[in-house]
């Protein structure tokens, strides 16, 4: 539940603009805080910064996909998450359908000094504040406060309580975006003029089948034919969050997830003045990041839980997590550190910045019990093992479920199962519960 000492405000005056962002409960370098204070100073490139903050807030209030049969999309907008990594601020949000991720990175050149503290919290983006932020323009200075020292009481007059909690789908989305970003590779980069031409030429309607964006001379073009050199794009309107920042853009970069002819999503990044606006798209218009399940292998490995405890104790809200350094300090192999980071990502505790090709530290307010409840496939897999429904015969596993025996075979491409779920999704949405159950049984023997 969001709880703010007062509403965020934006005051535009002839001498400059004052932006005061109210913070809710979060985590700092010193531990939990009711209302963290992260930054108090001037913000560079004011018009660009205001447009980017509004873009991230708008994504949280937008539904890009409405399931069939849903009469109207009920938007229960969540407030953006802000992380202070010391030398930069990161504002993050997800769309109401959880298929679009937005992040605005305010880099060191746009901040007039270091952060007061490091950590993660939510910030209040109320309608009056957004309307005022939309009037910021020109070169007038902007003074930004993220949090403030206040004495919070229980009096209703001093506390603004929001009735919208941070959605659990956001937590699952955070880890899936991190997984996609971590395995994505640079696909192409085009200058600002070509970026504007391409994005403004995209069809207004969102088609169901994925298209592919491929380089064409100095620019880009769309094709319906799957192309391993391109980036899949399902729902062209899902790139609209980038449009308000096009007038400030220096370049547009795209990072492609591992090739899948059915579509694999991708990461899009506008290079701005001392900042970046990042938009992540799920593989399919109807599939939000929250349902992908790519983290289930890490969660099923009990060894990663102990490794994650060791690694988490060494994190200090770094803007770039050095995996090699962590491996030395934790006394673990680098691959175990990466799997531990995957598990920490399942709790929203790390993200991945494709531009830096590095993890970054953040914290979200979720506990382990809620985390386990959010992954029913893993829960069902554990139940199958406990019920004795799994039998191993060499590299092949047999799982009896619902009166049917499913066969799980190891292949160079990964485990394959004979169940209908695997037949529909293959490995595109993480493992099925039968493959997970076989993996758990193997680890226990």
Written description of the protein model:
The protein has 445 residues and is α+β, with helices and mostly antiparallel strands. It has four domains: 3-165, no CATH class; 172-290, DNA Polymerase III, Chain A, domain 2 (Roll), CATH 3.10.150; 296-370, Winged helix-like DNA-binding domain superfamily/Winged helix DNA-binding domain (Arc Repressor Mutant, subunit A); 375-444, no CATH class. Helix content is 27%, strand content 27%. The chain is built from twelve helices and 25 strands. The chain has helices at 46-60, 127-133, 168-183, 192-201, 296-300, 302-312, 323-330, 334-346, 368-373, 376-386, 420-425, 433-444; strands at residues 3-4, 9-13, 16-21, 26-28, 31-33, 39-43, 81-84, 89-94, 100-106, 119-122, 142-146, 160-161, 185-191, 211-216, 219-223, 231-233, 251-256, 266-272, 275-281, 350-353, 358-361, 390-393, 396-401, 404-409, 416-417. The strands form six sheets. The chain has a ten-stranded antiparallel β-sheet, sandwiched between helices. Strands 2-3-11-6 form a four-stranded mixed β-sheet. β2 (9-13) and β3 form a beta hairpin. α6 (302-312) crosses α8, α7 (323-330) crosses α8 (334-346) and α10 packs across α12. The longest helix is centred in the middle third of the chain and has 16 residues, at 168-183. The chain is globular.
